[in-house]
Each structure stands twice: as C-alpha cells, then as structure tokens.
Amino acid sequence: MLMKLVVGITGSTGVVYGVRMLKVLREKKVETHLVMTEWAKKCLSMETDYKLDDVKTLASQYSDDSNLASGISSGTYRTDGMIVIPCSMKTLSSIANGYDETLVARAAGVTMKESRKLVLVPRETPLTAIHLENMLKLARLGVVILPPVPGFYTRPKSIDELVDHTVGKCLDQFGIEHDLYKRWGS
Length: 186
Hints:
Helices cover about 40% and strands about 15% of the residues. It is of the alpha/beta class. Strands 3-2-1-4-5-6 form a six-stranded parallel sheet, sandwiched between helices. The two termini are about 30 Å apart. Its EC number is 2.5.1.129.
C-alpha cells in the first residue's frame, strides 16, 4: 500500500522547501495531496522561477486553501499524516488554537484528531513568546516542530544541500528512506 501524505505550503519565506518536498515524495512514489495558501503562491513567484501549475503537477492531488469541502478536511479521508513546509506563524497559531478557517489549518486539525503524524516546519526568526507558546502547545500534543536548522557537519556546498537536509529530516519522521544528506557517523 502506498503512503499518502498531505502537504501544506504556507506563505512564510522558504517556499523552496515545500517544492523540494513534493519532488522527493514524487520520486519516492508517495501519494500527495497539496494545499497552498494565497501567500505561498505569492512567495512562489517572489522566491522562485516556478509557476503554480508546475508545483501542482508535482502532487497527486491539489485542493485550494479555501475549499473546506475537500476530502482532506474530513477524518474519513485516510492519510498517513501531514507536513506543513514551510509553516507560517499565522498557520501555526491557527493550528495551535483550533481555528480551522483555511484548508491547511483544518487538515492539520484533522491530522491531530485522528492521531496521525503532523510535522510543521516553522519559518520565523526571532521567535516571540507567543510563537514559542504555540509551538510548545502543539509539541505537547505530539506535533513535530521541525524548524529548518541545517546540520553543518555535512559540509553543505549549496543552498540545495541545506534544503535537502531539512527535507530529509521530515522524511525521517515518516520512516521514508533517502540519501538527501550524509548521516552522522557514516
């Protein structure tokens, strides 16, 4: 049986993380259901040469962030979990406080209520006490908070290698084998 993951891309800088995640999951034959916020779409055009249609084709399915009737808004829609990469503080706050106004937040809430793995890749610095409290609240509920913090022991030589390190750490959370970075001691 194929693994099925929901991938949310939000409007925090670092949209390249989400695009790379989709590429790798496609290579690994993981079924994906993509949701992008409006600000993610804006960041896509500001930060990359990708077009929205290019990114949509990387996913198995796509739903608009305003479509709360999408299958992923229900716990009866079976998935193995969800990754929000990058995750804006606005989205993180929505998830932490059960404010399911968008499909990304609703799908994350469904992921938690169904006891499925949820990985958030928050992009913000510096962090306020509010940010930290929201992350702590989610971590206590079992959500994986995985900021894009590179491991320099791999001696990265490019931005792509830095991105791959974070993407690889996310894949590790779901037990997906990869060789995106050199592991410690190997």
